[in-house]
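Q: How would the C-alpha cells look for this protein?
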Amino acid sequence: MSDSLHKAGRLLVNGVELQADVSGALLWPARRLAVVADLHFEKATAFAARGQLLPPYDTAATLDKLEAVISRHRVERVICLGDSFHDDDAVGRLDPRQAARLKALVARREWIWIAGNHDPTPPADWGGLVAEDYCEGALTFRHEAEPAARGGEVSGHFHPKAAVVLRGRRITAPCFVTDGRRLVLPAFGAFTGGLNVLDPAISGLFKKGFQATLLGRRGLFAFPRQALV
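A: Here is the predicted structure in C-alpha cell form.
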C-alpha cells in the first residue's frame, strides 16, 4: 500500500490510533485486534425461504474475507459488532463446512460477539464472549450508535456508504464514518446493502461534520462531508 493510501486508512477515535482496512474491517494494531460489523451470515438462505432466491454463497464469501484479514494482520482478538448472523435460525442453516470454518476461527483466538437486532442471542455454545456492548481502553463497542453516547463509541448497524463525483463519474462505495469522537463501520458481509451517510439516521450522529473513508478496489479514499453527494 502506498503511503497516501495508508494515511487515508488512519483513524483517530477518542485518542486511539486505529487503521481502516480495505476489506471493511477495523484494526487496532497495538492490541492485535480486528473489529467487523454486520456479517449477516446466511442472509441468502433467509431470503430464499421467503421466495427471493439469491446465490447461497454469502457465508463462504464472508468467511473467505474474514480469514484473509485475520491472517494478513496476524489478528489475535476479534470483535463482531452484532448482526453476525442474519437471524436467530441462521446457525441451523449453516453448511457444516462453513460452520467448521467459523468454529475454528473462534477457537483459535479471543472472540467477542456483540448482540445485534438481527441476532439478539448469538450462539453462546460456539465459544467467545457474548455481550450487549464491550469496553476496552478509551473505546466502547456496540451494535447501534447511541446519540447521547460519550466519546469513543465504535458501532455498525447502518451499513454506511458514500458517493462522490470524480471526473464526471459518480462513485459509490461502503465507508467508515468518523468525527474523531465516534466511528461507524461499513458492513463486512456479502450481500449487504447500504445507507448513504447523508441520510439523517447517520449524519445526525455527527452534528459538526465527519470524514468518510471509502473502500476502493485498490485502497482507501478519505473525503470530508462537504465533498459527498
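The chain has a mean pLDDT of 90.

Helices lie at 3-8, 43-49, 58-72, 90-93, 96-107, 200-203.

Upvote if useful.
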